[in-house]
Design a protein that fits this description.
- This protein is mainly α and 141 residues long.
- 78% of the residues lie in helices and 3% in strands.
- It has a single domain, classed as Cullin Repeats (5 helical Cullin repeat like), CATH 1.20.1310.10.
- It has a two-stranded antiparallel ribbon.
- Helix 1 packs antiparallel against helix 2, helix 2 runs parallel beside helix 5 and helix 3 packs antiparallel against helix 5.
- It is elongated.
Length: 141
C-alpha cells in the first residue's frame, strides 16, 4: 500500500519543480528492489545441483513474470505518465535508454541477474535431460 501511495503522491501533487526527482526516486527504488529479489533468486539457484536447477529456474521465472504483470498493474499510472514522458525525453540527442517500462525492467533485470549467470548450467542440464529422455545415455538399450 505504501508503494501505491508513493505513486499517487508523486503524480498528483501538482506541478512542483522536484516532480522529476520524486519520479526518478520511485523508479530507482523499484529497480533496486527488483535487483535485490533477482539476486536472491540467483544465489538460491547457484547452490542447487544441476539436476534440479531447470525446474527451480522455470518455477522462479513464472513467479517473476507474474510479479511483473502485477507490478505493471500497480504502477500503471506511474508508467503511463512519468515513465512514458521520460522515455520520450531526449538525452544527448537520443531517446532515453536508462528508463524502460515496468515489465521491460523486470525482464532486463531477470536476464542480467539470473539468466546470464546461469545460462551455461541451464544449457548443460537441459542437454543432459534431453539425452536421458531419448535414451542416448548408454544406460538403456
Amino acid at each position: 500500500m505504501r508503494g501505491y501511495n508513493a505513486v499517487f503522491e508523486c503524480q498528483t501533487t501538482g506541478s512542483r519543480p522536484n516532480r522529476y526527482v520524486e519520479g526518478r526516486k520511485l523508479y530507482d527504488r523499484l529497480e533496486s528492489y527488483l535487483k535485490r529479489v533477482a539476486m536472491a533468486v540467483y544465489e538460491e539457484a547457484r547452490d542447487l545441483p544441476d539436476g534440479s536447477i531447470v525446474g527451480f529456474y522455470n518455477e522462479q521465472r513464472d513467479r517473476w513474470n507474474h510479479a511483473a504483470k502485477r507490478n505493471r498493474g500497480l504502477l500503471r499510472y506511474f508508467e503511463r505518465h512519468w515513465i512514458t514522458r521520460e522515455m520520450a525525453t531526449t538525452k544527448e540527442g537520443a531517446n532515453r535508454s536508462d528508463i524502460c517500462e515496468v515489465v521491460d525492467l523486470h525482464m532486463k533485470l531477470w536476464a542480467s541477474t539470473v539468466f546470464e549467470p546461469l545460462e551455461g548450467r541451464l544449457n548443460r542440464a537441459g542437454e543432459e535431460h534431453e539425452i536421458k529422455a531419448k535414451g542416448l545415455d548408454g544406460e538403456s538399450e
